[in-house]
Design a protein that fits this description.
Blueprint (H helix, E strand, L loop, with lengths): L2 H27 L9 E9 L6 E10 L5 E7 L6 E9 L2 E7 L2 E3 L3 E4 L5 E6 L9 E8 L5 E8 L11
Parallel strand pairs: 1-10
Antiparallel strand pairs: 1-2, 2-7, 2-8, 3-6, 3-9, 4-5, 4-8, 9-10
Length: 163
């Protein structure tokens, strides 16, 4: 093979490799390589069940890290029937669907509400207002976090003031 033909053959892959190396070096130098989510949990609450079929749990999950994460599982001793649901509303019409995970953006939060993302708890036991329920939240990229939620009557929760 002639030198000019060889150069034409390898020029594309060499340029692509050099560009990739340059971008990775810049990403690392900017402090983004190896960053992880930094999660904290607050506002844990469980609605007092209005029927025997299901109720919901809610948390505020803050991510002060530079990487996204996802809530992928929840365990609690009060039921094994646990899943994630998401609600949307247009006027008075609502729609609810189940999902396998809930996203937690980098430098953001997942604020669970009755009219948004929440944790469905099927066939809950009899609960009483003020009761504390243990939960373990499982994430795609972060270690599990053990936390608690307080049983409240629907419509009585007010978010904590933050500064």
């Amino acid at each position: 093979m002639k030198p000019l033909a060889l150069l034409k053959t390898v020029a594309g892959p060499l340029v692509a490799a050099a560009l990739a190396l340059t971008l990775l070096t810049a990403w690392t130098a900017a402090g983004q390589a190896g960053t992880a989510p930094k999660l904290s949990i607050s506002d844990g609450r469980v609605h007092l069940a209005t029927n025997a079929d299901a109720t919901s749990a809610y948390f505020t999950i803050r991510n002060s890290g530079a990487a996204n994460d996802e809530l992928v599982g929840v365990s609690t001793p009060i039921t094994t029937d646990v899943g994630f649901s998401f609600h949307t509303y247009t006027g008075y019409a609502g729609r609810m669907w189940m999902t396998k995970s809930l996203p937690i953006p980098a430098k953001g939060l997942l604020g669970m509400t009755a009219s948004g993302a929440n944790i469905m708890l099927g066939t809950p036991p009899r609960l009483t207002p003020g009761q504390t329920i243990p939960f373990t939240l499982h994430f795609r990229h972060s270690p599990p976090i053990h936390t608690t939620a307080t049983v409240i009557r629907p419509g009585t929760w007010t978010p904590a003031k933050t500064t």
